[in-house]
Fold this sequence. Notes:
The protein is of the alpha+beta class. It is built from 21 helices and nine strands. The strands form three sheets. A four-stranded mixed beta sheet has the order 1-2-7-4. Strands 3-9-8 form a three-stranded antiparallel beta sheet. A two-stranded antiparallel sheet has the order 5-6. Helix 13 packs across helix 20 (449-466).
Amino acid sequence: MVAYLIWFARIRRSLTGPRVWPLLGSLPGLFQNKHRMHDWIAENLTMCKGTYQTCIAAVPYLARMQGLVTVTCDPRNLEHILKTRFENYPKGPTWQAVFHDLLGDGIFNSDGDTWRFQRKTAALEFTTRTLRQAMARWVSRSIENRLVPILASCQLKNEAVDLQDLLLRLTFDNICGLAFGKDPETLRPGLPFNGFAWAFDRATEATLNRFILPAIIWKLKKWLGLGLEVNLRESVKQVDKYLDDVICKRKLELSSQQERGATHDDLLSRFMRKKEGYSNEFLRHVALNFILAGRDTSSVALSWFFWLLTQHPRVEGEIIQEISRVLTETRGRDPAAWVSRALEFEEVDRLVYLKAALSETLRLYPSVPEDSKHVVADDVLPDGTFVPAGSSVTYSIYSAGRNPAVWGADFLEFKPERWLTPDKKGFAGPLDPYAFVSFNAGPRICLGKDLAYLQMKVVAASVLLRHSLTVAPGHVVQQKMSLTLFMEQGLKVHVHPRVLPVGEEAALGT
């Protein structure tokens, strides 16, 4: 005991950040602040000038290896981790073990050659104009035929609606259409139950639960068939069966299409055309990886965007004026023509202020607030922090967007103007690209970044052209502590008619 206390006193002096306790490490502070974990991490990083080290297992040997966590939001360190020494900071065995049952060796759960091969194949497809056109078609269809009628009905009935739920359904339908060419139709009047969507949600929830537990605990529960591990096993089976049916049917369709000259433009079909010998398991994981990445991120960002607009009417007014100016030039001065159909992506590309407002939303409320990497070999970060092999590095995306050293004393203010060029006519990112990593950075930067902006801008413009929103009385908006920054109780809003500027007022943007 004396030897341990001497050892503990020595290691505690070498650590920074939140208080470290014997055996339990920093876990007591984490649990005490679990309802505000991201803000707690950001506060610790501000006090420690952008980087601190702690341990989650104050046990000899483990504390300097698997138990040691380096937390940072310093842009220099982020560039080092995500780009300069990319190979030294893979996803690592812990991350891969947690997600393997659901995602296998898919692009978002793999490292090394397996990742490089899938990344190269996917990158070729994401650069094609046809993929963007496909996304525009899926988004336009879901907005015009589903989201617009549902919001209009809520407005007519004066009923509060959970906008976060609607957006999750919309992006799920869109990403399924883009990923494997089949629409699950979860966003329909009545919001029907869908077995695939339900199984996917249960599998995701059970997978994320593994991050809360030590690996030995969730692996034992898996072996014994206990708790959420049962849900995960059953849900993965249901998801796999659904996708196997889609894949088998698609293979037959592609075979017959070679004779007819027709084609599918979804990602699954594109992978199939690259190589006929891909196994069903590999193709399933391709589809599931893109669904997981493409659904929650855009819908969560849009939820926080609409909430921020309810708090900042000036910004909402600027967005409405910009949309009105663009549509006056492309569709004339009659507002009825503006809402006759969803925006074309040529029109969306001109919405600079809207993109700035969405970027400012992602700065303050990134869809994935924290991410972690495994350290392969001993290294020293640019700020002088030593990170030993076997430890982990958490880079706080949430804190990076709230770093006063980067964003200034007004870093908590919602100011889209900080993303514009000096003449206010163009979009400009931050001076340091590693100060804003909501879409990741370096070799793993999000392939779907442009598609995400396209979808978010079309959805945002379509809603704002028709409606103004107010948060339902008594509804509390707060962060859900998970890998994705959901709102704990959703976003319940009342839907009101929008009064649009007309004539010269719209043309001049006044």
